[in-house]
C-alpha cells in the first residue's frame, strides 16, 4: 500500500510565508512529467463533456465564458491531485486554523476569446470556499497567449500571474481576481478548499 504525501520539492516554508504575507503563493513544477502528461490526457479526453460555465439556469452570464467539467470518482488521475490538495489542507489547518474539511474541483478550459471577469470566490462570506487553487494543465504556454490570472493581494497590490504549465496558484478565496482573455485553449483544474463538506 502506497502512502500519499506532498511532493518533496514543495517549499512549504516559502508557501506558508507567502500566503500569510500576501494571501497567495505560486508553486512551480508541481508534479513529475509522467503524472502531469497523464493528467493532461485525462482532461483532454473529457473535453466533449465540458459545459459552458457562463450559462446558469438558462441565463447567460456576462462575467465568464469558460467551459467546465466537475470532477468525480471517474477521473482517477484528477482524484490524485485532489488527494494532494487534501494533504495540503491539513498543513493549512495546522498553520492558520482554517477548518478546511473538503475539496471541490472542476476541469476548466478557456477557448480562444474566453475570460472570467473580476470577482471573488467567496463574496461576502456567502459560501464555504476558504482557499482557491488553480493548477495549469496545458502542455505549453507563452505570454502572448494571454489567459493570465490577475489578482489583488492582501496588501492591495495587483499581480499578473502567467498560466505556466504544471504550476499551482493558491490564494485566499476572498481576494479579487480575474482571468484575462485567452488566445488558445487554457486548461486547468480549479479547486476550492472548503470548511464544509461538498454534496458529492
Automatic annotation (TrEMBL):
<dbReference type="InterPro" id="IPR044862">
    <property type="entry name" value="Pro_4_hyd_alph_FE2OG_OXY"/>
</dbReference>
<keyword id="KW-0223">Dioxygenase</keyword>
<dbReference type="Pfam" id="PF13640">
    <property type="entry name" value="2OG-FeII_Oxy_3"/>
</dbReference>
<keyword id="KW-0560">Oxidoreductase</keyword>
<protein>
    <submittedName>
        <fullName>2OG-Fe(II) oxygenase</fullName>
    </submittedName>
</protein>
<feature type="domain" description="Fe2OG dioxygenase">
    <location>
        <begin position="101"/>
        <end position="195"/>
    </location>
</feature>
<keyword id="KW-0408">Iron</keyword>
<keyword id="KW-0479">Metal-binding</keyword>
<dbReference type="InterPro" id="IPR005123">
    <property type="entry name" value="Oxoglu/Fe-dep_dioxygenase_dom"/>
</dbReference>
<dbReference type="InterPro" id="IPR051559">
    <property type="entry name" value="HIF_prolyl_hydroxylases"/>
</dbReference>
<dbReference type="InterPro" id="IPR006620">
    <property type="entry name" value="Pro_4_hyd_alph"/>
</dbReference>
<keyword id="KW-0847">Vitamin C</keyword>
